[in-house]
Specification:
The complex is a heterodimer of chains A (245) and B (174). With 245 residues, chain A is mainly beta. Chain A is built from no helices and 21 strands. Chain A is globular, with a radius of gyration of 18 Å. Chain B has a domain of 96 residues. In chain B, 14% of the residues lie in helices and 40% in strands. Classes of the chains: A mainly beta (245), B mainly beta (174). Strand 1 of chain A pairs antiparallel with strand 3 of chain B.
Chain lengths: 245, 174
C-alpha cells in the first residue's frame, strides 16, 4: 500500500524547454557548492530560497544588496531546493515541484511528482531526477527509499535503503548518504547497481571538484570526512582526513 | 445489530495498525515530545547586533549542512552560525573561524557575497576569514517566517519586536 506513487501532472517535458544558456553562464569559481539538503541557491543574478511554504526570489544584480522581488506559494512542508540549469527542483514532504527560471523573477510552475509523505532531498541531471525519501522526526513516515524518475515525471525505479538522506551526482555515479555512504552506478538507469560503499554515517554530501581533484566531503553528527574520488576507479576512495565532532 | 461493535472493533484495529505504521521507525519519538521544545526569543534591537566573525575556532557540537567555496568549507552549527574550515590541504583541514549567525541553517555564496538566513532575516555580507573582517552589506528583515521547532511547531507568542533565534530541548518533564 505504501508503495503507491501518484504521478501527477506530467505537463511539460524537458524536450519542450530550450536548453540554451539564457543569459550569463556562471563562472565556476563565482559560486560554491551545497548539498541537496540546501534551501538556498543562486541562478545568474538571482538568489532563490525556500521556507516552509514559499519560494522567495531576490535580485542580486548588486551582489551586496539583495532585493526581494517575488515570492511564490508552493505548498506545505517545503524542505529543499536544487538548481539544475534553468530549473528549480523543490523538495517537500509531499512531493517534488519543478519550476523554470527562464524568466528569473517569475518562476514558472512546470510539473510535480507527488509521493508519500517523507523527507526528500532531490538531485537531477538533464535526463533524470533522483530523490530519497526517509524517515525523520517531523516527517513521521516509515519509508526509506531511493526513487528515480526521468524528467518527464515517469517513475523508473525504487530501491529500498535504510535511512537515505542526502545524495549527490558524480558523472555516472550517484552517491547516497544511507546507513553508510553508498555509491551506485547509474549508467544503466533501469538497472542501477551498488558498486561501492564507505562506512561513514553522514547526512550531507558535497562532491567538490576544485583544483582538478575530486573530493567527497561528508558531514555527519560525529565528523567531517573527506575522501578522494577517482572516476576511473570508483572503488578507490581514499580517506583524506577527518575532523571529529 | 451486531455489526456495529464489529465494525467499531475493525475500525479500532485498523486505526491501531495505522498508528503502528506511522510510528514504527528506528527513531521512535513519542508525539508528545514536541511539547518539550521551547523557543528562545530576542528583542530586535539586540538581535541585530549578534552577527559577528570571530577568528577563534569553536568546537563543532551540533553539525548541520555544509557549503564548499574554493578552499573553504562552511559547516552550519544549527541555529548558531558557521564554522569556517580552511581546506587548502584536504588532508589537513583547519577550523579557523566562526561566523555567529543566530537562527541560521543555510548559506550560499556568489562572488564575494555570502547570503545567510539569520532567523527571520536574510543577510548579505562579505568576509575575510583569515583577516577576521566581516561586513554586513544588507539586511532584509522578515524575509522568512519565524523559526519553527524541530517538529515544525510555530511559536505564536512572539510580538513584532521579537525574533525566535532557537528552540531548546527542555527535557522530559514526566
Amino acid at each position: 500500500m505504501k508503495t503507491y506513487i501518484l504521478i501527477l501532472l506530467a505537463v511539460i517535458t524537458f524536450s519542450c524547454v530550450s536548453d540554451s544558456d539564457s543569459g550569463l553562464s556562471q563562472n565556476a569559481n563565482e559560486v560554491g557548492q551545497s548539498g541537496s539538503l540546501a534551501r538556498f541557491t543562486t541562478y545568474n543574478d538571482y538568489l532563490y530560497t525556500v521556507d516552509n511554504s514559499k519560494l522567495n526570489v531576490f535580485s542580486i544584480t548588486d551582489r551586496e544588496n539583495p532585493v526581494k522581488v517575488n515570492e511564490i506559494v508552493i505548498g506545505f512542508n517545503i524542505e529543499t531546493l536544487f538548481n539544475y540549469k534553468e530549473f528549480l527542483y523543490i523538495g517537500s514532504q509531499n512531493g517534488i515541484f519543478i519550476y523554470s527560471v527562464k524568466t528569473p523573477e517569475e518562476p514558472q510552475y512546470l510539473s510535480e511528482v507527488q509521493h508519500f509523505t517523507a523527507c526528500d532531498p532531490v538531485v537531477a541531471n538533464f535526463t533524470h531526477a533522483f530523490v530519497t525519501l526517509h524517515t525523520d522526526i517531523g516527517c513521521r513516515t516509515n519509508i526509506n527509499v531511493l526513487e528515480i524518475y526521468d524528467v518527464n515525471d515517469v517513475f523508473i525505479s525504487r530501491r529500498n535503503l535504510t535511512k537515505p538522506i542526502d545524495l549527490g551526482l558524480y558523472g555516472d555515479y550517484l552517491i547516497v548518504c544511507d546507513d553508510d555512504v553508498k555509491i551506485f552506478d547509474i549508467s544503466d538507469i533501469e538497472n542501477t547497481t551498488l558498486v561501492h560503499s564507505i562506512s561513514r554515517d553522514a547526512f550531507d554530501v558535497i562532491i567538490n571538484n576544485n583544483n582538478n581533484n575530486n573530493t567527497l566531503i561528508l558531514i555527519g553528527a560525529d565528523g567531517l570526512y573527506q575522501y578522494s574520488l577517482n572516476t576511473n576507479n570508483i572503488q578507490n576512495t581514499e580517506e583524506l582526513s577527518t575532523i571529529n565532532i | 445489530m451486531k455489526l456495529k461493535p464489529i465494525a467499531t472493533l475493525l475500525l479500532g484495529c485498523s486505526l491501531s495498525f495505522q498508528s503502528c505504521w506511522l510510528s514504527d521507525t528506528a527513531d521512535d519519538f513519542p508525539p508528545q515530545i514536541q511539547d518539550y521544545y521551547e523557543p528562545v526569543t530576542m528583542v530586535r534591537s539586540e538581535f541585530d547586533t549578534t552577527t559577528t566573525l570571530q577568528t577563534t575556532a569553536e568546537v563543532i557540537v551540533n553539525s548541520g549542512k555544509i557549503y564548499v567555496k574554493d578552499n573553504f568549507i562552511f559547516i552550519n552549527e544549527r541555529n548558531k552560525g558557521f564554522h569556517i574550515i580552511d581546506n587548502t590541504d584536504p588532508t589537513n583541514p583547519q577550523n579557523i573561524a566562526f561566523l555567529n549567525v543566530l537562527g541560521s541553517s543555510d548559506l550560499t555564496i556568489k562572488g564575494n557575497s555570502v547570503y545567510v538566513n539569520n532567523a527571520t532575516d536574510l543577510l548579505a555580507l562579505t568576509l575575510d576569514a583569515q583577516a577576521g573582517t566581516m561586513e554586513i552589506t544588507k539586511r532584509v528583515p522578515n524575509a522568512f517566517p519565524q523559526l519553527t521547532s524541530p517538529f515544525g511547531n510555530v511559536y505564536y507568542g512572539a510580538n513584532e519586536n521579537e525574533v525566535v533565534v532557537d528552540w531548546i530541548f527542555k527535557g522530559n518533564n514526566n
